[in-house]
Amino acid sequence: MKPHKNLELWQQAMVLVQMVYEATSGFPREELFGLTNQMRRAAVSVPSNIAEGAGRGGEKEFLHFLNIAQGSLSELDTQIEIAGMLNFLRTDELLNQSDRVGRLLTGLIKKLRIKTP
User: Fold this and answer.
1) All residues at 6 or more sequence positions from 6 whose CB lies less than 8 Å from its CB, including other chains
2) Is the pTM of this model over 0.85?
3) How many H-runs (helices) and E-runs (strands) does the chain carry?
4) CA–CA gap between residue 15 and residue 12 (Å, rounded)
5) Residue 47 CA: distances (Å) to CA of 43, 76, 108
6) Where are the domains of the chain?
7) Which backbone phi and psi does 56 adopt, to 5 degrees?
8) CA distances from 96 to 12, 20, 56, 74, 114 (A)
9) In what helix (H) or strand (E) does residue 96 lie, and over which residues does it extend?
10) Which long-range contacts does 29-38 make (Cβ < 8 Å, 24+ apart)?
11) Domain spanning 3-115, CATH architecture
12) Average pLDDT, whole number, for the chain?
């Protein structure tokens, strides 16, 4: 098994991807290349960067990719808020899952920063 698949962070980020895909499937058709695409790309970026960093081997590189994942998660959070503001979806479940991933991500980043000068 790949090392990232054992991380609860990666597993919860994958749940978030699934939730985003399900939520955006009901967006207006004219948003397919707009908000739908942006949200899906940002969501996919989170577990992808976690996996890439975990696969690199070094803690410094892992930390770099976790920071990129954190940026993508912040981007997604904003896009969820925009979708809610436009009444495309109810944001509660997505924001709760995003927060869960964010807490796990922040915790792992803090742990690695202590270990990696």
Assistant:
1) none
2) yes
3) 4, 0
4) 5
5) 8, 13, 14
6) 3-115
7) -75, -25
8) 11, 12, 30, 13, 27
9) helix 92-115
10) 31/88, 35/79, 35/82, 35/83, 35/86, 35/88, 38/75, 38/79
11) Up-down Bundle (1.20)
12) 95
Place of tokens 């922040």: 106
pLDDT digits (tens, 9 = 90+) for 64-74: 999 999 999 99
Q: What is the dihedral of CA 16, 17, 20, 24, to 10 degrees?
A: -170
Each residue's pLDDT tens digit, 54-66: 998 789 999 999 9
Which residues, other chains included, contact 116 with Cβ-Cβ below 8 Å and sequence gap of 6+? Answer: 59, 60, 63
Q: Residue 58: what are its φ and ψ, rounded to 5°?
A: -90, 145
DSSP string, 76-88: HHHHHHHHHHTTS
